[in-house]
């Protein structure tokens, strides 16, 4: 990006502030939509940060909410302007999970549970390429390369950032046993995973098969937390055609409690490293 402004996070903050102003006014989204002659879904998308907010939208909403303090209006207008900038990921073209990338780029910590694969931030380039090719068999080679490059760029948050992302990953044993590419590639990936787990801001725990049923049995999810207290935590659940972002405090709390149970049932950090290393040795045979 040309500046340190993260457009995704700016949209979220602006949407939260617009929701707060609406609630202070005692209006429903339907009432606001009726006043502005727009759909209620547009108001909802503006407030949840999933849609770009124009300065005209801000001006119109401030008018409906009777915001008379010009400093507040100017601040919101500037946020709207910032939210329309492009993040670094836009240089790679149309990325289906660009909203998530914007959140991850600004997050202070990320807790992820993955039952099937090694998490993206901990993947080697060869593993990422084989994984994307297998998961999306109709994707052109150029698009596979683009996705791999985006993944590697995301990894800068834990490799080169001045304030690195605090990453905590609970990974199911299935992800270590599933042969993506070939056995040599898997050995390299697991050795890389052991290496990364030794970074001071990266924690990796393995959930072995013999732990049986557990709270993460329903599938992958991630919890993102942000350095600014004004930015609420987000639970991210990846889908095939669309993704789900949960921001209500009650939803985030439920997933956080689930994650604590996962961490408690998983092997500790040292035992996890030995577990990964032993499977890597198996691939070398």
Automatic annotation (TrEMBL):
Highest taxon above the source species: Bacteria
Classification via InterPro entries: Cro/C1-type_HTH, DUF5753, Lambda_DNA-bd_dom_sf
SUPFAM superfamilies listed in its UniProt record: lambda repressor-like DNA-binding domains (SSF47413)
Domain HTH cro/C1-type: 18-73
Pfam families reported in the protein's UniProt record: DUF5753, HTH_31
CDD domains: HTH_XRE
Protein name per UniProt: Transcriptional regulator
Organism of provenance: Streptomyces chryseus
């Amino acid at each position: 990006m040309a500046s340190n402004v993260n457009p995704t996070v700016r949209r979220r903050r602006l949407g939260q502030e617009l929701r707060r102003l609406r609630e202070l006014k005692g209006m429903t989204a339907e009432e606001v939509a009726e006043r502005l002659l727009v759909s209620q879904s547009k108001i909802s998308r503006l407030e949840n940060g999933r849609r770009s907010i124009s300065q005209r939208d801000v001006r119109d909403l401030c008018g409906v909410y009777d915001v008379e303090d010009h400093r507040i209006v100017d601040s919101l207008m500037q946020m709207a302007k910032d939210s329309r900038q492009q993040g670094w990921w836009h240089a790679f073209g149309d990325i289906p999970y660009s909203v998530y990338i914007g959140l991850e780029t600004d997050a202070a910590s990320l807790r992820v549970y993955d039952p099937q694969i090694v998490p993206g931030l901990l993947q080697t380039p060869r593993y990422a390429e084989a994984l994307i090719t297998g998961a999306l068999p109709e994707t052109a080679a150029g698009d596979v390369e683009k996705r791999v490059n985006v993944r590697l760029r995301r990894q800068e948050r834990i490799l080169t950032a001045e304030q690195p992302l605090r990453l905590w990953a609970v990974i199911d044993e299935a992800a270590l046993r599933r042969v993506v590419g070939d056995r040599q590639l898997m050995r390299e990936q697991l050795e890389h995973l052991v290496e990364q787990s030794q970074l001071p801001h990266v924690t990796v725990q393995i959930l072995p098969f013999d732990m049986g049923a557990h709270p993460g049995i329903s599938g992958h999810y991630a919890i993102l937390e942000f350095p600014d207290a004004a930015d609420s935590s987000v639970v991210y659940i990846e889908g095939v055609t669309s993704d789900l972002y949960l921001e209500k405090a009650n939803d985030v709390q439920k997933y956080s409690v689930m994650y604590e149970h996962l961490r408690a049932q998983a092997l500790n950090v040292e035992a996890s490293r030995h577990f990964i290393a032993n499977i890597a040795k198996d691939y070398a045979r």
